[in-house]
């Protein structure tokens, strides 16, 4: 790291979340320090956001604050998903421009790709068709965030980059069944099944959809790599490189957790997209690849879950 990089003022918006906390850990491992608010700021509020930027004066911003959830939360709270995310990202991106932030990294998601786009999704498939309905409000807000970064770069000469991660998992994930993603939801159910000695654990859907899972510390490593090595308005995918079925992930977690019961797949519950694999060759071509295999990532996640179960809601 160059000497002047040590002096960078880095603000990780969403530092308490799964991605934000992993980025903070990664920055600290590499000798960077972060600046953060003394108390929680509501980034949906423009004045609070502007005041925060006046106080922190960040050089770099990682925009990992968002309303995030699985299929149930997306279908139950569509208005909150589009409102909260549109407000948070508009305020943070605009404040970054006004306060002359040198570089911003915006966290998008693989759900911005059209449901019928060819698999694996390449960056050029962005905006080539209709979205999956179950998380359309969330995806539309993420698409607006990407276009906002690109527009600010074009009009104001900013350096705001947008990355599209695969499904993430790891420490500080949400394991609450009302708003968790598929992997933490399955882990939680299997753990409860083991704890209560249940003969059967219910998994939503058919178990056949395929998902690509990236350990969150790998994602954080990619974020830091891209802050140092990527300066384009074009979106860039960050994936693990391969995918598994929901059934396969359930059996892997069952093995890691040591659960001996069976699964019951509830086909009355929605599956979501059949497949969501990213083509991450743009990223691998510039020199980054993941290092945590799925089995290892699941072991680390379950270990973290057991150590932190007392504070998990
Ligand atoms: N999780 C995934 O699988 C995944 C996959 C692809 C992309 N991403 C993207 O990665 C980013 C982070 O996701 P995550 O999984 O880390 O989510 P998370 O664990 O739910 O963390 C979200 C963070 O945003 C903060 N936040 C939410 N509303 C806020 C508000 N109004 N004002 C200030 N802070 C607010 C939360 O703080 P409080 O706890 O204080 O509310 C928390 O720190 C999101 O942009 C998401 O789209 C995630």
Outline the structure in words.
- Keywords: Isomerase, Multifunctional enzyme, NADP, Oxidoreductase.
- Pathway: Nucleotide-sugar biosynthesis; GDP-L-fucose biosynthesis via de novo pathway; GDP-L-fucose from GDP-alpha-D-mannose: step 2/2.
- Its EC number is 1.1.1.271.
- It catalyses: GDP-beta-L-fucose + NADP(+) = GDP-4-dehydro-alpha-D-rhamnose + NADPH + H(+).
- It comes from Desulfomonile tiedjei.
- The chain has one domain (3-305): Rossmann fold (3-Layer(aba) Sandwich), CATH 3.40.50.
- The strands form 4 sheets. It has a 6-stranded parallel β-sheet, sandwiched between helices. A 3-stranded mixed β-sheet has the order 11-8-13.
- The longest helix has 21 residues, at 78-98.
- It has helices at 3-6, 18-29, 46-56, 71-76, 78-98, 136-156, 182-196, 216-229, 246-257, 281-285, 294-308; strands at residues 10-13, 34-35, 60-63, 103-107, 160-165, 167-169, 200-204, 210-211, 213-215, 236-238, 244-245, 262-266, 275-276.
- α2 links the parallel β1 (10-13) and β2.
- The chain has 11 helices and 13 strands.
- α3 (46-56) packs parallel to α5 (78-98), α7 crosses α9 and α9 packs across α11.
- The mean pLDDT is 96.
- It has 313 residues and is α/β, with parallel strands linked by helices.
- The chain is 43% helix and 15% strand.
- It binds NADP nicotinamide-adenine-dinucleotide phosphate.
- Residues 14, 16-20, 40, 42-44, 64-68, 84, 88, 107, 109, 165, 167-168, 174, 181 line the site of NADP nicotinamide-adenine-dinucleotide phosphate.
């Amino acid at each position: 790291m160059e000497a002047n990089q040590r002096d960078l003022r880095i603000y990780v918006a969403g530092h308490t979340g799964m991605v934000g906390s992993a980025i903070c850990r990664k920055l600290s491992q590499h000798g960077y320090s972060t600046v953060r608010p003394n108390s929680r700021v509501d980034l949906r509020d423009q004045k609070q956001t502007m005041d925060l930027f006046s106080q922190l004066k960040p050089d770099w911003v990682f925009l990992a604050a968002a309303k995030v959830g699985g299929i149930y939360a997306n279908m139950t709270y569509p208005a909150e998903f589009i409102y909260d995310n549109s407000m948070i990202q508009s305020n943070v991106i605009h404040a970054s421009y006004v306060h002359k932030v040198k570089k911003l990294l915006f966290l998008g998601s693989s759900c911005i790709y059209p449901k019928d786009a060819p698999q694996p999704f390449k960056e050029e498939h962005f905006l080539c068709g209709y979205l999956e309905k179950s998380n359309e409000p969330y995806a539309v807000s993420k698409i607006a965030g990407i276009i906002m970064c690109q527009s600010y770069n074009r009009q104001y000469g900013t350096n705001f980059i947008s990355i599209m991660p695969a499904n993430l998992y790891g420490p500080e994930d949400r394991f609450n069944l009302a708003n968790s993603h598929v992997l933490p939801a399955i882990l939680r159910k299997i753990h409860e099944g083991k704890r209560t000695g249940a003969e059967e654990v219910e998994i939503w859907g058919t178990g056949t959809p395929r998902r690509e899972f990236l350990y969150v510390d790998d994602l954080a490593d990619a974020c830091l790599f891209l802050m140092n090595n990527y300066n384009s308005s074009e979106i860039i995918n960050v994936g693990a490189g391969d995918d598994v079925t929901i059934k396969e992930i359930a059996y892997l977690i069952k093995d890691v957790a040591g659960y001996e019961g069976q699964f019951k797949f509830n086909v009355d519950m929605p599956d979501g997209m059949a497949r969501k694999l990213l083509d991450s060759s743009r990223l691998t071509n510039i020199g980054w690849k993941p290092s945590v295999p799925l089995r290892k990532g699941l072991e680390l996640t379950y270990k973290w879950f057991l150590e932190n179960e007392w504070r998990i809601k």
